[in-house]
Amino acid sequence: MIALKLFYNGEGFHGSQVQPEVRTVAGELERALASLGATQRVRLASRTDRGVSALEQVACFEPPSEGFHPGALNDRLPDDIWVWSWADVDESFRPRHATGKEYVYVHPARLDADAALKAATMLKGEHDFTNLSRHDDRSTLRTLDTVDVTTGDCTVFTFRASSFLHEMVRRCVTLLARVGGGEAGIDAVARALDPDATVNIPPADPRWLYLSRIWYRDEPVWRDFGPGREAVRRFVRRMAEEARARQGLAGLVLSRLD
Description:
The chain is 28% helix and 25% strand. Helix 2 packs antiparallel against helix 3. The chain is built from five helices and ten strands. It is of the alpha+beta class. The radius of gyration is 19 Å and the shape is globular. It folds into two domains: 2-97 and 216-250, Pseudouridine synthase I, catalytic domain, N-terminal subdomain (Alpha-Beta Plaits, 2-Layer Sandwich), CATH 3.30.70; 105-153 and 163-207, Alpha-Beta Plaits, CATH 3.30.70.660. Strands 1, 2, 3, 4, 5, 6, 7, 8, 9 and 10 form a ten-stranded mixed sheet that branches.
């Protein structure tokens, strides 16, 4: 078995999982593998929604032939997906059985870091995220190990947990941005965490959310692939430039309104 670390720009995808008649990350991977002789399904570590990007998604599949090198996939993948690291793994490896996952959200506004961090602290630990996720048949109890807030040209939210619910991170970002932007008080967090309360918290824009890290108890021995790493660097540099540009535009508009 082979495991890959993937980068992809989510703007052009209808999510990571295979869906009929729409473009997805797993669909493009399986198409590329089929051109090399592989026909089995690709397993991914984490599901990402439409528009969400990944700096480190993990995929796993049976190699199509002996002597196959994962770098060959980059010649057959579109330019918004890159393989940048790979590892040989045994048959028992399951990419979804990760010890932890990290998501980073780059909010284009410079928020009140103290207020947002105070709100973020309240989200840490085990809670019922009924009001902060898109409902499905899974339990809404989750434990957030880390919720961090840093500010600069923009505001960066970092979330770490062993598992997340659909739209959980983006809805948490909306809540924290409301508190950090002065639209809501700290009591809004307690209300959002009350499963008996009726609270409408929409998900934040998916374009600024990144699956940034996945790790395992028995970490595979990863081997980096240079061209793929450079693709990740280019994307992160562009991401930083866009955040600075949006912050500069916001500052210009606000100065004219003062």
